[in-house]
From TrEMBL:
<keyword id="KW-0378">Hydrolase</keyword>
<dbReference type="InterPro" id="IPR050738">
    <property type="entry name" value="Sulfatase"/>
</dbReference>
<dbReference type="InterPro" id="IPR017850">
    <property type="entry name" value="Alkaline_phosphatase_core_sf"/>
</dbReference>
<comment type="similarity">
    <text>Belongs to the sulfatase family.</text>
</comment>
<protein>
    <submittedName>
        <fullName>Arylsulfatase</fullName>
    </submittedName>
</protein>
<keyword id="KW-0732">Signal</keyword>
<feature type="signal peptide">
    <location>
        <begin position="1"/>
        <end position="22"/>
    </location>
</feature>
<dbReference type="Pfam" id="PF00884">
    <property type="entry name" value="Sulfatase"/>
</dbReference>
<feature type="domain" description="Sulfatase N-terminal">
    <location>
        <begin position="27"/>
        <end position="361"/>
    </location>
</feature>
<keyword id="KW-0106">Calcium</keyword>
<dbReference type="InterPro" id="IPR000917">
    <property type="entry name" value="Sulfatase_N"/>
</dbReference>
<keyword id="KW-0479">Metal-binding</keyword>
Amino acid sequence: MKFRLSCLALCGALLMVPATWAATAPPNIVIMLYDNLGYGELGAYGGGILRGAETPRIDQLAAEGVRLTNFNVEAQCTPSRSALMTGRFSIRSGTYKVSGAGSPEGLTLWEVTLAELLSAKGYATGIWGKWHLGSSETRFPTNQGFDEWYGVPRTYDEAMWSHADESVDGGPTIGSKQGWDEKLMPPQYIYEARKGEAARQVKKLDLASKRNLDAEIAERATAFIKRNAAAGKPFLAYIPFSLVHMPTLPNPEFVGKTGNGSWADALAEVDHRAGQILDALKAAGVEQNTLVILASDNGGEATHPWEGANGPWRGTYFTAMEASLRAPFIMRWPGQVPAGKVSNEIVHIVDLYTTLAQVGGAQVPSDRAVDGVDQLAFLTGKQANSNREGFPAYVADRLSAIKWRNWKLQLIQQDNMYDPAVVLPLPRLYNLLTDLREEHSVTVENTWAVPRMMSIAGQLKASFKKYPPIEAGTPDPYSPPQ
């Protein structure tokens, strides 16, 4: 009898093992990074129907997780993506500005990406969309920790090259004699690549292929999710969608969907693509053990006729104005992140590297400066405050502003990306709670705050002595100076 009871107890224990393993399995990580999706576009951030299209799937995601109102990025596409992948301010990595076609650019292979960290912990890693961190094949994402990639190395502006003599949904036109010539500048291609294999050019990037790209991104990302979920393998799915980067053109299936023009149709597609990813997680049975982040790499577009909406903030990207630095950020992780939480605490995109490394059980490198701080306790509601109070804001290689708590110190004034950058003779201090549009400097009556803010920049510059920044265009192999 005792033997039978022992066997029953053992069988019961064995039946419990899979459930225990499932509870402690490494969480999957999904990052949906939209391109130049301004602060004021989504319904959860005051946009949605005000921009001509509701965003119900993303708004529901926000209701199920935490939404930040003070999530900060860098001023351009390449710097933000570099900061996400390395946890380092882009001024350190030589990736502080967008480089044009034909220029040496991208991350050196010395950098350790988030994909490399998680891959070493057994994660499957995939990226679909714009990389923008190296357009030579040696610096493609499949040489930087990703198992697979489908997308473009640089940016979407180049989709307009072959249409330079045509109007792009009301956009600018150029006479054909002055237009693009493939002999002068080769077209950009959409690539497909797998780790350890040569990348393959799939098709040219033009207006037609850009319109269809987000549908392809969603299709490939969902297949990756289902494949790895079925195999029981944890995964990092990095999904940098193309929308709403100019030219802001919706998929043909969405043209006319809202009746409010191309921009609203594109916003409707943004919401739909997010829904496709979320549905794939649920269908694959991994929704409960997946951390989902939805964010933007920059503020809204600044070029007519594709201008974005930045909510209450003034300015454009490629500046240090709040419209450039603040971007939407939503994070859902069932059972871990409190639902419906909204916070105005400062978080920077570099923090995602350190935080997600912690989630995946990886250690950040200790042989270099890592600027990201671990925000896991804050985002999961275990503490009320962010572990970050401020940061220096660079525009390209110019220290342009410093944020600290609810204060903003502008050192260089530039409201619009097309305006000249003017070094201010006296820094302008703004209270971002009472002056959202940064119009009334209160430096004189609050000089007490300036030394504290300048110390943030001082600490960063002091660290350059120990860890010298990498110069833009530095070739591989790179080794830091001893």
